[in-house]
């Protein structure tokens, strides 16, 4: 195994680990409609930092007919498919979101469940989506009517869980790989289960639990929420750093409900979901500085910004990333700075998802070159505490370790496959990166 500084054309970028959400991930919802306040953006003109695009929305024919419909707006189906393929060729993932704020999903009957499965499978195959997102905000399928988290009795919930499993199984049969799965519930349906367990309160918990092995990212909407309990028993208000931290740790740590214990998810399956600007939601917007202090603390990279104290004092460095409603709102300068959310994500996670945007840093020296599988990093003109991270060309974080910037760091890559990687060093304020090739 040898390491060189040479940069080559990335002709094989999507052939490796195709069925994986990038890590870290900047996840954005994209409007499949025109809106004068948040205008339509051609799918392949989205800011390059968004590496997971959730297309909004697939909807049922009617509240009682669960045949699902999706038709691209503005462009033809053929043009839309080409644009999806363009994004995928850049290593990005394009998912189809089901539901939305005004749509009701009811899979109470077997007829509705089967219609849901067959039509969703057809849509996914027609347009070439990498996955699906459950953004159901109304209907019996997300309401508690009895049972527990691990053993729901609602036929609509049971059928939704089974339907998603069948859609994923159909995809694997056809494409020989996993269909990606994300969820974007409101806080009442998740953390709200601590207050009560019934109706909307905790309504997603059986769904999350029933699909936890298939779930790639849970991105709870930390907006339009009101106040919620944290796992410390205190109440936190949306629009604050404390709310971001408390709600995020709750789904990682887990919490007790009247319907039983909700076992937490790995931090790598959790993203922080926030509005891109004030007009993007009815409440819950948090300015960039407070978002950064909250997520830095969550990831173990910063000091406590408010009153909430993490139960895991080391934080969660493997937190998957950030989600926003929406890309279109992030792209307008009338609500906030142009792509303010994407810029803040980059400031927090320090990773530009566009490979072409990765700047070489003369402050990082890697040697020997070539190497037999080990190399040493030394730094110049970099001070303060730090960490070292290594990413694959698809954005998957493979190594994350603390790094004393006053010393050398020896890295072993014997267990890493040949390919292109990024070595990134963080000094508490800025990331420095270097492209390498492992042969």
Helices and strands, with pairings:
Elements: E1 3-4, E2 25-31, E3 52-62, E4 65-69, H1 77-89, E5 93-104, H2 110-127, E6 131-138, H3 155-175, E7 180-183, H4 205-210, E8 217-218, E9 227-229, E10 235-237, H5 241-253, E11 254-257, E12 260-263, E13 271-275, H6 288-298, E14 321-325, H7 327-330, H8 340-349, E15 364-367, E16 374-379, E17 387-392, E18 397-402, E19 409-412, E20 419-426, E21 431-438
Parallel strand pairs: 2-3, 2-14, 3-5, 5-6, 6-7, 7-8, 13-14
Antiparallel strand pairs: 1-21, 3-4, 9-10, 11-12, 15-16, 16-19, 17-18, 17-20, 20-21
Helix pairs in contact: 2-3, 5-6, 6-8
* Estimated radius of gyration: 22 Å
**N-to-C span:** 5 Å
* Mean pLDDT score: 86
Order of helices and strands: EEEEHEHEHEHEEEHEEEHEHHEEEEEEE
Shape: globular
Strand percentage lies at 25-35%
The main pleated sheet reads as:
9 strands, mixed
Number of domains: 2
Task: Describe the structure using short key phrases.
alpha/beta, TIM Barrel, 2 domains, nine-stranded mixed sheet, five-stranded antiparallel sheet, globular
Describe this structure in words.
- The protein has 439 residues and is an alpha/beta fold.
- It folds into two domains: 25-350, Glycosidases (TIM Barrel, Alpha-Beta Barrel), CATH 3.20.20.80; 356-438, Immunoglobulin-like (Sandwich), CATH 2.60.40.3080.
- 22% of the residues lie in helices and 27% in strands.
- The strands form five sheets. Strands 2, 3, 4, 5, 6, 7, 8, 13 and 14 form a nine-stranded mixed sheet that branches. It has a five-stranded antiparallel sheet with strand order 1-21-20-17-18, with no helix packed on it.
- Helix 4 links the parallel strand 7 and strand 8.
- Helix 2 runs parallel beside helix 3, helix 5 runs parallel beside helix 6 and helix 6 (288-298) runs parallel beside helix 8 (340-349).
- The radius of gyration is 22 Å and the shape is globular.
- Mean pLDDT is 86; it is low at 1-18 and 352-361.
């Amino acid at each position: 195994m040898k390491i060189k500084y040479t940069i080559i054309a990335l002709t094989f970028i999507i052939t490796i680990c195709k069925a994986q959400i990038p890590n870290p991930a900047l996840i954005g919802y994209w409007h499949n409609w025109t809106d004068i306040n948040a205008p339509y953006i051609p799918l392949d003109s989205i800011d390059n930092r968004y590496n997971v695009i959730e297309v909004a929305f697939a909807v049922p024919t009617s509240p009682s007919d669960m045949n699902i419909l999706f038709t691209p707006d503005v462009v033809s189906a053929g043009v839309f498919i080409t644009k999806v393929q363009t994004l995928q060729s850049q290593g990005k993932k394009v998912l189809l979101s089901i539901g939305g704020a005004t749509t009701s999903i009811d899979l109470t009957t077997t007829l509705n469940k089967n219609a849901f499965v067959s039509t969703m499978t057809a849509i996914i195959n027609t347009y070439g989506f990498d996955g699906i997102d459950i953004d159901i905000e109304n209907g019996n399928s997300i309401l508690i009517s009895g049972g527990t988290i691990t053993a729901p009795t609602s036929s609509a919930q049971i059928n939704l869980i089974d339907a998603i499993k069948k859609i994923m199984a159909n995809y694997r049969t056809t494409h020989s790989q996993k269909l990606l799965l994300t969820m974007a519930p409101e806080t009442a349906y998740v953390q709200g289960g601590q207050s009560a367990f019934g109706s909307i309160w905790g309504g997603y918990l059986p769904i999350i639990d029933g699909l936890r092995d298939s779930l790639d990212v849970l991105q709870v909407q930390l907006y339009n929420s009101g106040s919620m309990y944290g796992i410390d028993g205190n109440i936190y208000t949306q629009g604050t750093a404390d709310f971001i931290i408390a709600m995020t740790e709750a789904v990682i740590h887990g919490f007790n409900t009247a319907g039983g214990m909700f076992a937490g998810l790995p931090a790598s399956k959790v993203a922080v979901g926030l509005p891109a600007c004030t007009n993007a939601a009815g409440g819950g917007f948090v300015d960039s500085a407070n978002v950064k202090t909250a997520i830095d603390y969550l990831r173990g990279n910063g000091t406590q910004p408010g009153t909430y104290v993490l139960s895991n004092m080391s934080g969660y460095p493997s937190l998957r990333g950030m989600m926003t409603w929406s890309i279109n709102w992030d792209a307008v300068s009338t609500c906030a700075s142009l792509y303010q959310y994407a810029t803040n994500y980059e400031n927090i996670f320090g990773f530009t998802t566009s490979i072409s945007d990765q700047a070489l840093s003369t402050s990082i020296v890697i040697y020997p070159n070539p190497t037999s599988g080990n190399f040493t990093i030394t730094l110049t003109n970099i001070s303060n505490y730090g960490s070292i991270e290594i990413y694959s060309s698809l954005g998957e974080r493979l190594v994350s370790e603390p790094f004393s910037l006053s010393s050398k760091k020896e890295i072993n890559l014997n267990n890493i496959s040949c390919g292109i990687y990024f070595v990134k060093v963080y000094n508490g304020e800025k990331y420095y990166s270097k492209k390498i090739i492992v042969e």
